[in-house]
TrEMBL record:
Pfam families: BtrH_N, DUF4872. It comes from the Bacteria. Residues 155-324 form the DUF4872 domain. InterPro entries: BtrH_N, DUF4872. This is BtrH N-terminal domain-containing protein. Residues 14-142 form the Butirosin biosynthesis protein H N-terminal domain.
Length: 327
């Protein structure tokens, strides 16, 4: 058995920030999950639909691994990323740093992980790996998945090699702090402004505040769009509220990030952004509850009400990001 020493195997709410937290704490930098999410400019919005999907996907964050790249660039971290189509090389890329005493981040498809309770394909899942023996890999996943967990080496290999939407080719990564790390407090305002700029200037209409407006138009028709409404709508609501988002489609994480920022920086714009995202988080929870009720009851009125709230959310988040962009 090979186990990296001094790893704090603490699961938090969101997979990518959980893995980053494990890797950075081992390097000596301990930041809260909301701070990691915010410094990585992680908040976004996407309304994604394809004909082969049972229901459109509503996402609340940037693309998988963009948060990690953003955070590394902002904090001056050395981010070492390995990808390969070779199963042998993929294992070597993981075993070598662990043998050398360093945990490793992995992007994979959670469907093949033995401990995962919900068997759905999601190729953008991220975990930290800190050990292995002849049968199992020792991982840190989110709190809701168990925190410190194990999965078979065979299952891990399949999860890493899976192909499909949002997957990567056996991606593994490590992070290293610079000899003189920059003050992370000084990187807060640039992170907030970059997130706001991207949200407001999204290049297509299904992203950012325009994407929320598009959702407001299309969600009321989801009972007709869904293949199995009684199953598909509650599942969509579950993913929005409890599917590793930290609550309210990542808005709780961003609300808490802004709250932490206001305790470090005296700025009216930050306080306004925090107030507006506090309101937005509550409304996103209302939207997911209405989508769930629509699926359970078959009553489209719940979706009509969700659409009305989504229009309000488009306005509220646009206003919040306009304020935050001017910091």
């Amino acid at each position: 058995m090979t186990i990296v020493k001094d790893v704090e195997a603490r699961g938090t709410h969101h997979c990518e920030t959980t893995a980053l937290g494990v890797l950075l704490r081992h390097e000596g930098l301990d930041l809260s999950e909301p701070m990691l999410f915010g410094l990585g400019s992680g908040l976004s919005f996407v309304y994604w639909d394809r004909k082969d999907m049972p229901l459109p996907f509503i996402g609340g964050r940037v693309k998988p691994f963009d948060l990690t790249r953003n955070l590394a660039a902002r904090l001056g971290l050395t981010l070492t990323v390995e990808e390969t189509t070779s199963s042998r090389r993929a294992w070597e890329n993981v075993a070598a740093p662990i043998d050398a005493g360093r945990p490793v981040g992995l992007q994979l498809d959670c469907y093949h992980l033995d401990y995962f309770r919900s068997k759905v394909h999601f190729g953008g899942h991220v975990v930290a790996m800190y050990g292995y023996d002849e049968h199992d890999a020792y991982l840190v996943d989110t709190e809701q998945q168990g925190g410190a967990v194990r999965t078979t080496l065979a299952g891990l290999a399949m999860a890493r090699a899976e192909r499909g939407p949002m997957t990567a080719r056996n991606r593994s990564f490590t992070v290293t702090l610079p000899a003189r790390p920059p003050s992370w407090q000084d990187r807060i305002i640039p992170a907030v402004k970059d997130c706001a700029d991207a949200f407001l200037a999204a290049p297509i209409a299904n992203l950012g505040h325009r994407g929320i407006e598009k959702a407001a138009e299309l969600v009321p028709g989801w009972l007709l769009r869904a293949g199995e409404p009684r199953q598909d709508l509650p599942q969509a609501a579950l993913l929005m509220e409890r599917g590793g988002t930290g609550g309210a489609l990542f808005r709780v994480l961003y609300r808490d990030f802004l709250d932490e920022c206001t305790r470090l920086i005296d700025d009216d714009g930050l306080r306004t952004g925090h107030r507006l995202y506090t309101e937005a988080a509550t409304l996103w929870t209302d939207v997911s509850a209405l989508i769930e009720k629509a699926g359970e009851s078959g009553d489209a009125e719940y979706l009509t009400r969700a659409g009305v709230i989504l229009r309000d959310l488009s306005r509220i988040e646009r206003e919040a990001m306009q304020v935050l962009r001017r910091l």
